[in-house]
Protein 1
Amino acid sequence: METQLPKAPQKRQVTAIIIVLILLILWEVDGMTIKYSVLEERESGSYVANLAKDLGLGLGELEARDARILSKGNQQYLQLEQKSGNLILKEKLDREELCSDTDPCILHFQVLLKSPVHFIQGELQLLDVNDHAPEFLENEILLKISESSHPGTAFPLKIAQDLDVGSNTVQNYTISTNSRFHLFTLNHSDGRRYPELVLDKALDREEQSELRLTLTALDGGSPPRTGTAQVLIVVLDINDNAPEFAQLLYEVQVPENSPVGSLVITVFATDLDAGTYGELSYSFFQSSNQVIQAFEINAVTGEIRLKKTLDFEEIRSYRLEIEASDGGGLSGKCTIAIEVMDVNDNAPELTMSVLISDIPENTPDTVVAIFGISDPDSGENGKMMCTIQDHLPFVLKLTVENFYTLVTERALDRESQAEYNITITVTDLGTPRLKTQHNITVTVSDVNDNAPAFSQTTYTLRVRENNSPALHIGSVSATDRDSGANAQVTYSLLPPADPQLPLASLVSINADNGQLFALRSLDYEALRAFEFGVRAADRGSPALSSQARVRVLVLDDNDNAPFVLYPPQNG
Ligand SMILES: *[C@@H]1O[C@H](CO)[C@@H](O)[C@H](O)[C@H]1NC(C)=O
Ligand SMILES: *[C@@H]1O[C@H](CO)[C@@H](O)[C@H](O)[C@H]1NC(C)=O
Ligand SMILES: *[C@@H]1O[C@H](CO)[C@@H](O)[C@H](O)[C@H]1NC(C)=O
Ligand SMILES: *[C@@H]1O[C@H](CO)[C@@H](O)[C@H](O)[C@H]1NC(C)=O
């Protein structure tokens, strides 16, 4: 009898699986980041770097380890040519579109190597190209100046926009040559430059009631790109008071989820003049495109409202310059600093990079999935926790920041559970908590780790002598807990222990179902009982088998007439 697994074959089998399936074993992180930079607007297919060389890997290794580039949200900018190890641009990248005002513009990616699993963090800095010229929102800027203004008085002018960043954005302003004004470019704390027209010599309305100048904005490119606007200066002969705001600086905080139309703040200016000259009109002044798109101002009431919903993840603060003009053309200015407050308005996202949904049994530490998680919110709203259900034989391992690997905790046994439904839950720590779930089903594939098992260790069959040949005398039966070919059982007779026993001419076995047949008529008087072994083997590779004993008892039939031994009948 042999129901125990033979030890040696099983060990060999597992070793073979480890080699064949190339087990993915985790490596710890070493915190390395590779950094590359590339100019924006380069054609797709442009060479960025040779990854193999930079990682110190042999040429075949990237291919052998199925190296790939991962990035958040499936947005792929880079492509890896596994053969050459070259990293190339997958598409033409526009810095203005990808990063807007953010400088430097850094796109994050990861390099994933398998067997063993290894992550490398990567950064691609997109360098600005001076592909946009400064632009004024209006072609003509109207400036009304009282002839009583003293030389040295400064008049702020509207600014030009430039979509580029850094030195490629507006650096300086100039004004066409004239005898009355010079231009001064101020550096603001927000990094922008602001033009101010400074009066050099008192104006005389009788001599010149209007003055037309050309304002030019220059960016820092080489050569610089420019944008121009006309400044129409109208000289007024009235002598009144300019409007004055209650505060020069207003500071407001606005939650990013405030609805369109919400009141942000009401500004208020006073003018000592009554009548027409006292009626004030409020408007934006020196405000960026972003301000004009996001806010609107009521010219009469000074109410500033949201024109679109704000997004903390996109723009975190705004600076609004507001002008109050009286009917006479004199104006006063104030600044509103708006801070956008983060609200937990984004649920975490999960990006599956590798999913192996069919894993072999008996192999611990097998990688099932590799995925990244992200949450664009900031602070606690963007911190995440990643879990799976309790009591599953799988564990989550944080591989590098925000990248997890799901591995088997121990060897799985298909015969006890062949399928697992795993729910990966990613929760942020914001208020309210937002979560994302991702369900995966992992099936455990069979390995031939069970030998067929006979229903009995010994079978005893009784046959009445003088049977007809080919009589079905009984059956043996074995089952195998594996599946497929690993569970297909075939039966055979073992050679008898007693070499004198002509077993092959006595019984036969049906290889498929274990039915036993007496081949010829048995004679109790010649053979009262006999014993043999049967074997059940599966079709696995290598095959596993077990054995059982079969004992056949021949039953006596009254087939011989009595005869008298003494005295002899013929005597
Ligand atoms: C700005 O332009 C003026 C006039 O051309 C020039 O004198 C000045 O040096 C420039 N400033 C900068 C910072 O380039
Ligand atoms: C503004 O900054 C530029 C460069 O940072 C510098 O050259 C210039 O002198 C500054 N101008 C003022 C008025 O501070
Ligand atoms: C897994 O989910 C599928 C579909 O919902 C279900 O049919 C199956 O029974 C589940 N398996 C387990 C082991 O829970
Ligand atoms: C994932 O599975 C859980 C438990 O079976 C179920 O409640 C949930 O709705 C599923 N989620 C998705 C996204 O299918």
Note: The chain has five domains: 9-127, 135-236, 244-341, 349-445, 453-555.
Protein 2
Amino acid sequence: MARINENFLKLKAGYLFPEIARRVKAFVEANPDKAGQLIRCGIGDVTEPLPEAARNAMKAAVDELGSRDSFRGYGPEQGYDFLRDSIVANNYAHLGIEADEIFVSDGSKCDSGNILDILGSGNKIAITDPVYPVYVDTNVMIGNTGEGDEDGRYEGLVYLPCNADNDFVPAIPDEPVDLIYLCYPNNPTGAAATREQLAAWVAYAKKHEALILFDAAYEAFIQDPEVPRSIYEIEGAHECALEFRSFSKNGGFTGVRCGWVVAPKTVFGTTESGEKIAIRDLWSRRTSTKFNGASYPVQRGAEALYSEEGKGQVKELITHYMENARLLREACEKVGLAVYGGENAPYVWVACPEGTDSWGMFDRMINEVQVVITPGSGFGAAGEGYFRISAFNSRENALEVCKRIQANLG
Ligand SMILES: *Cc1c(COP(=O)(O)O)cnc(C)c1O
């Protein structure tokens, strides 16, 4: 009989979203008259249509594949030069990152999980709490943790609590770690990290020869010009950080699928015997063996987001979602709730009223205002006492949610 990877059995069976679905279903069954009023502000998926520039570029690319002269088969595993070059020109030209340090992929979720392929076992791994669950679960799957407890905390991981006291950016640990996952602007808290905060993390990583895995999926939502848009704006990051980026949230590519990893040539890991090895070379090797590149039409669509027309359309999307975030923040503030995030990220992170926990708030929101939110505790023990409202919605829905919050939660 085929043996399985038993690490998978340690996983806390994707508790959060199934439990939300279960409670929504129970509500709908108990209140069939109210089912039609439900508004979902739970899932982190975009709602607005794909920018026209991307659609046109993808259609043209499909037509190119339809004639022998312009047909293309397998592309370069690391991505076409046209896209790697425009990624550099539009994001990193001033930061000293080169096109051969960009690895185009089918999205960041895959990249942030796959990166563990090239990292060894025995690393001490730090993650924030609350956290994007992918970082935790991929470490569980590969055997980097022990068993999980009832709160979903796994033995062997270093949890860095993020709360209102530290502005949702974790304090530097007082012990050395080897690997640090940071996501800013943050999902789920909507917090942005300042230059000083990121500089402290880079200094720590350099001191301990640690590797920072920096997830910047929400870069496009940054409004404050002082907030760094890339970890490479921080001096020294070129020696200790990889950056994960995605077209999912800025370009509405959650269903189209395209992202990239930045792996500077100057980031090294070590063998057991102490030999330094360039992370970039390992990632390149892994990519050419296990991946055959993102689809050609998709890469053309992504490239088109950097055209003048495309940039304008992306900006409209960001403005749309950020206006939703502003409205939602305001509505929660008006009823006296403590509100965080939502200023440089499409997530509003709200403290539950005194005496109500995250799931209690989930139940109140669905029962009293028919709005589905995400309980903060689902993202980690330190998320208890908070809930997340996603700004990914139509304006009509966002306004309706605001109206109901103000009418019923005050
Ligand atoms: C949405 C999101 C991503 C992007 O994932 P894709 O696989 O590129 O769609 C990455 N990180 C975080 C934290 C996210 O919320």
Note: The longest strand covers residues 241-246.
